[in-house]
Specification:
The protein is α+β, with helices and mostly antiparallel strands and 290 residues long. It has 12 helices and 4 strands, in the order ββααααββαααααααα. It is extended. About 4% of the residues have low confidence.
Length: 290
């Protein structure tokens, strides 16, 4: 298989390639069978239409499109592995060549995990903590701790944690994938809507009161979303470099608490949340020990 990978702005890549004729053609029977499972034709039971009848009744382009769908579903992960691409979004696929007895031509665009150039985060943490006067140690600000920063330890206050992470963020270099910013925006608006609903108000009425649309809010919160996305990537990178992972026993306890409090919570999502929170806490404890 011929593949060419082109780097695009905002941490995206375009994969252009051709899949050999023999490989593409080998999916004809499977594609036809898949179509036949739901194809309706008078005189035949669904899923029981003979292949010869299907070939005469199903438009060739529909069979070709199903072949392309099946072959790329199997080979796309192999392409990512072979080209060492860390994809983080759903692929945008366009077919450039689609015909029987021919190679399958395609282009795939996807966001990838960016390369992150971290500053000397240990030195940053050490210098900031060294500036704390004794009476400031142990302070705990009553304002809610920003997501991802974690709860302060007994020796370092929330304001100090924020100083450390903001300094690290300011001196880090990366191309921020747009998809991660959009995900953070979705989270911000979801939490806002949940809060408004819990107050007994309709979110639509709240927006009318503000004289704003969802798009207006997305623009307003974009900078916050970019910071959250950048923070998440930086903490993830530090955890990889320093091999910091959450304690399995602590994760299990945290998941149990979440599932007890939120009966309808998805166990897998609860586990991911617990691992993320506990790992981030260990990262900050590590930074504070410098």
């Amino acid at each position: 298989m011929k593949v060419k990978v082109t780097k695009l702005p905002k941490s995206e890549v375009e994969i252009e390639g051709e899949l050999e004729t023999e490989v593409f053609e080998s999916y004809f029977a499977t594609a036809l069978k898949k179509i036949g499972e739901n194809f309706e034709l008078d005189g035949f039971r669904k899923g029981k239409i003979p292949e010869s009848v299907l070939i005469s009744k199903v438009p060739e382009i529909r069979i070709l499109e199903k072949m392309a769908e099946l072959v790329l579903a199997e080979h796309y992960p192999k392409i990512l592995e072979g080209e060492k691409i860390d994809a983080i979004s759903r692929p945008e696929i366009s077919i450039t060549k689609l015909a029987r007895k021919n190679p399958l031509g395609f282009k795939i665009k996807t966001a990838v995990l960016p390369k992150i150039k971290l500053p000397d985060y240990k030195d940053i943490a050490k210098k900031i903590i060294a500036q704390i006067v004794p009476e400031e140690k142990g302070e705990i600000n009553e304002a809610p701790t920003p997501e991802g920063v974690g709860a302060p330890t007994a020796s370092v206050g929330e304001k100090t944690r924020l100083k450390i992470i903001e300094k690290i963020m300011d001196n880090s270099e990366m191309e921020l994938p747009e998809i991660l910013v959009e995900i953070e925006l979705d989270k911000i608006l979801y939490r806002m809507e949940s809060d408004i609903t819990q107050m007994g108000l309709k979110f639509e009425d709240y927006l009318k009161h503000l004289n704003k649309t969802i798009e207006d809010l997305r623009k307003e919160f974009k900078t916050d979303a970019e910071k959250k996305a950048k923070l998440s990537l930086i903490l993830n990178e530090i955890s990889k470099v320093e091999k910091i992972i959450a304690d399995e026993e602590e994760v299990a306890k945290e998941v149990a608490k979440i599932l007890e409090h939120y009966k309808d919570a998805d166990p897998e999502r609860a586990r991911m949340h617990a691992e993320n929170v506990l790992t981030n806490e260990k990262i900050f404890v590590f930074l504070e020990s410098q």
